Amino acid sequence: MNNKHIQNLINLLSGSLNAPIYFIDPSLNIILKSEGSLLLHLTDSFADPYFEEGAPLPKLKTLKNDGHFLCLTYYEEELLIGTFLIGPLNYHLTSFTQVIHQGCLLYYLLYRKHIDFNEVLKDNFFKQPLVDSIEEKLKSDFTTLRQIAEDNITFFPLAYETHIINAIEYGDPEQLINAVEKLSRQQPLLNQLLEDPLHSSKVLYMTLIILGARASIRAGLIPDVAHKLTVFYLDKIENTSDMQELAKLQLTSLLDFTMRVQQINTLTFSRPVLDAIFFIHKNLYDNVSLEKVATELHFNKSYLARLFKKEMNETIGEFILREKVEEAKRLLMVSKHSLLDISVLLHFNDQSHFTKVFKQFVGLTPKKYRDQHQFKG
User: Fold this and answer.
1) pTM of model > 0.70
2) Distance, CA of 281 to CA of 257 (rounded, Å)
């Protein structure tokens, strides 16, 4: 295949892929390229292992500072001619599967041999050493699981995961606690299967929090609230190094989602009051007030105030303070924010006002509450 034929291939593929295409020689010189392609600076590290004997499959490669590329070396009668370099790839314009399929097409045009999509995926992402290590790990784990089975011990962590998610979605704290306790009893068995129990437990707990957040949204929790809770708890888990405290934080986070859903399930109020409650929850960290709620929801302020007081048996102002105190309790338990920071975050007049309101609702000062309930992460 001469340079003219190669250039025709380049022009054909670049139009369908929305990506530049280069053809480089074994010395890493760009011989041909598609129209409008930018200049690339290739280093010697690119050559290994993409210039190799035989007719290798299309390879996905990341070039430093240049992005992601699809590479395919071209041989004629065992003589290396050069390499096709497709990219940098923009997955917003060209899907990942389309890139692989185009790599298969280019391979066929060059070698007149059909290769399968899955074959290319396997060659890129499942190298034999990785496969061998996975197989060895599975054999070891199955041996442990057989020993567990022989001891007549139940081991179904996925079933407990389902119970946890169901408990959150139905707003059932008791069911949640039972499911978490059952999963916790499996921890020693899980540790036998894990090379790094702390890291693996973090991954498990983070996964449960993300799934729990989705369950709470399905149950009616405001997505913005669920997202903020998720980010908050994921950060706390990431920065915790004690297994017992990690387990405590896991239960705290999952209970938080569950009890918020439980609160939603108990709401049997009129639409204006429900809208006001949801707006307050969503904007708890803002300087929310009756005036702001009424304005944002397009309600008459006096009408909303009377209706809220009638159905909730407290004013909107009292409800806002109560909810801010509940949020402050959570921050006192699981964050390192100072009392001043919390009072500022929740828009109390000052720290003294925050302390007075908190004690009015809880019966303890914020400091005493933190001393008794703080999570030691």
Assistant:
1) no
2) 13
